[in-house]
Amino acid sequence: MSKKMSKKAMEPEILHIDKHLLDEEWVHQPKLYFEYASELAQARMELEEAKAEFDVVKAEIDLTIRSDPTDYDLPEKTTEVMIGKALILTDEYQEAQKIVFTAKHRVDILSSAVTTLDHRKKALENLVELHGRNYFSTPRIDTKHLASEGLEKFKETVEDIKNTQVKARNKKRSKKRKRQKNV
Q: Which of 39, 73, 126, 176 has its Cα between 20 and 30 A from that of 133?
């Protein structure tokens, strides 16, 4: 699941906000945040474990080099610098270091995802505020000055626009629900 979540964190899906489904976006936001924050905590723990394992590997290799430096093409009397360089050149050291680097990268990616979700929350707040101020409302016209046939045509057009918006909104909700079921 860890690698799955890391891949998911790199997908721009968490960046998408449907301004016509703000209620559903808000309902989904805490769940998203919890998923990524939990995964970040898990990744941080795995990073600490990788660092601890790396320290153990370094210590074991160091002891092995000190016990028989000739196995590492070092003279019998070695210096700390020589031991340190021989240590870095071993495959075990490099593999353990690579595991630490990979764990650190995963923490960085998930940390970015959690930060992105903080930004997403602020964007949702702003969109709700805009919605509350009728930013997304349909245009209105003063109907007192329209002739009666113009008024009827106008009302039909407005009704068609509303119906089209409702259909589009329902279609988006349906698609979003299908996507969420597949996740």
A: 176
Residues 98 and 8 in one domain: yes
Q: b vs e for 115-132, b when ≥16 Cβ sit within 10 Å of the residue's Cβ? A: ebbeebbeebeebeeeee
Q: Give the count of domains, the chain.
A: 2
Whether 133 and 151 map to the same domain: the answer is no
**In whole angstroms, how far apart are CA 59 and each of 87, 164, 169?**
9, 69, 61
Query: CA-to-CA distance for 58 and 48, rounded, in angstroms?
Result: 15
Per-residue pLDDT of the chain (183 residues; tens, 9 = 90+): 445 555 555 566 788 888 888 888 888 899 999 999 999 999 999 999 999 999 999 999 999 999 999 999 999 899 999 999 999 999 999 999 999 999 999 999 999 999 999 999 998 888 888 878 777 766 666 656 556 666 677 778 888 888 888 788 788 778 777 777 775
Report d(CA 103, CA 16) in Å as an integer: 27
Residues, the chain, total? Answer: 183
**Is the domain of 45 the same as that of 74?**
yes
Same domain, 172 and 117: no
Q: How far apart are CA 27 and CA 13, in angstroms?
A: 16
Residues 106 and 148 in one domain: no
pTM above 0.85, yes or no: no
Structural domain of 78:
2-137
